[in-house]
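New to this. Explain these tokens.
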Amino acid sequence: MSITSNNLSWLGSILAAIVGFFLRVIYDNIKKYLGNRLKIMNCYFLENKYIPEAPFKTKPFRYIFFKQFRLHNSTSMYIDRFKIVFYFGVNATVINKNNHCKAGTDLYRFELSKPNEVVCIIEKFNIEDEIVFEFKVEELNEIHEYSVNEHESKGFLIKVIDIRKPLKPIPSKKVSRIEIVNIHK
């Protein structure tokens, strides 16, 4: 049996198809592994100021804190709709809340499910967009807790990064929602 050029081209085509098949399987597995990883969205804790208030005869002394967070879409994906939840201490009460971004002020809706919990519905959150959230929180004592989570996970986690200015640090403790509930039972 002699090998002709026609047989060699036929054999080369089969070998190219087999190599192409294996390269495609490797590529699909790498893409599947990298594509299904959980993305990280950064939320920066910018400010935590104590707002002094003079005590009145009818009201006891209150600790009011101004808290500011900046949510940055660092996930490299467009997110159509999701909810972000801000938890504060069990004895805390959210007095005032607002948000602003490059498109305007108070564009995103807030839901208050509990006095110490704020849920914000964010729609059409593009890549590299940022939203600044500002809260006035009343607390019964100086120790205050906070937690920021996503409500309906869309393939990402929110990571809180504390970048407060080091002028007069107020002691804060970041806890999970489970710890806040269990501490005060």
Remarks:
- The longest strand covers residues 39-51.
- The chain has a mean pLDDT of 78.
- The chain has two domains: 1-37, 39-183.
- DSSP finds two helices and eleven strands in the chain.
